[in-house]
Amino acid sequence: MRNMAYATDIRTGARSGGLRGAITAYLADLADRREKAREYRRTLHELRALSDRELSDLGISRLNVEEVAYRATYGA
User: Fold this and answer.
1) Is 13:22 a contact under the CB 8 Å cutoff?
2) Number of C-beta neighbours around residue 47 at 10 A
3) What is the pLDDT of residue 36?
4) What is residue 10's DSSP assignment?
5) SS3 sequence, 51-68?
6) Considering only CA atoms, which of 2, 29, 1 is closest in space to residue 14?
7) Longest dimension (CA), the chain
8) Whole-number Å distance between alpha carbons of 14 and 6
9) pLDDT in tens, 11-56
10) pLDDT on residue 65
11) CA–CA dist 30, 32 (Å, integer)
12) Cβ(40)–Cβ(70) under 8 Å?
């Protein structure tokens, strides 16, 4: 039996190429996107729970709460 060398994807630890690597990369990406979505919803919930006065103290308009939560989670 011959020894075979595989390149490893640092982010996922998956072998580059092949179905196994593609599935592993897809599942890692899916888990990351789900965690980001949870973080967005959590941030949005926390901001919506603040009073208008508290939001004003932070320099945030109630109309901009969704945008602020999005930028806090996903960046600009």
Assistant:
1) no
2) 19
3) 97
4) T
5) CHHHHHHCCCCHHHHHHH
6) 29
7) 71
8) 9
9) 555 455 799 999 999 999 999 999 999 999 999 999 999 999 999 9
10) 98
11) 5
12) yes
